[in-house]
Design brief:
The chain has about 260 residues and is mainly alpha-helical. The chain folds into three domains: about 80 residues, no CATH class; about 90 residues, no CATH class; about 70 residues. It has seven helices and two strands. Strands 1-2 form a two-stranded antiparallel ribbon. Helix 1 packs parallel to helix 3 and helix 3 runs antiparallel to helix 6. The radius of gyration is 42 Å and the shape is elongated. Its main location: membrane.
Amino acid sequence: MVLQYGFITIFVTAFPLAPLLALINNVLEMRLDAKKFIKYYRRPIPQRVKNIGVWYSILAIVGRISVASNAFIIAFSSHFIPRLVYEMRVSTEHNEEGYLEHSLAYFNTADFPPESAPINPSINVTVCRYAEYRNPFNITEMDQKYKRPIIYWHILAARLAFIVVYQNLVSFVMTVVQWTIPDISRKLNDRIKREAYRTNEIIIHNETERARQRKRIPRNRDSLLSTTTLYYDAMNGDAGTEEEPRLNKNTMFYDV
């Protein structure tokens, strides 16, 4: 279950249909498990627990990792940021017209190294186009040939900025949702605190009464022990003094 949750949350942008498939799988699995518990298994013994324990922390960590993972996937695996930069900084009409031409770099086939050059090419191709941000081969500064242009660094900075903004925005939304929808309502929380307070008061009262009874028991016990000892010694004709009663084999003790 936790593995399924991790795969869905971390890679949901790569496969948006995964949550729907997971929902169908979990519904079928719950019905099959319910049938097993009703027909084939002995009735389980329920056990009251406070929460899901360490799994709560594990799910929280997986959720935070998924936020960062989705931010990186959106920033570096899609054309969302390059299109946005093109519309804002390159396009004069601020639209996507000409974006494909802008995103393809030029490469002269004569610059292929011998080990990478095509063997017996069927057609005469002098220039290749590929999806990358590189300076063209006919640039005036030959030392900047096939180097990264300034627009590439603008896009990279925009991608990193998007990651920071995305993570902070999602964290803010999660905080707002947790604050508006708490796990325990305020009314129920007040009742729980009141019940705990009354329970503590009852425990303190019972402990106080028990301590008072313990203080009274030793005096009563000593007086009863002294009276019982003198009585049995007198019956046997061997009475001791009141300050120091004598004990014999017929002396009986009663614990009160």
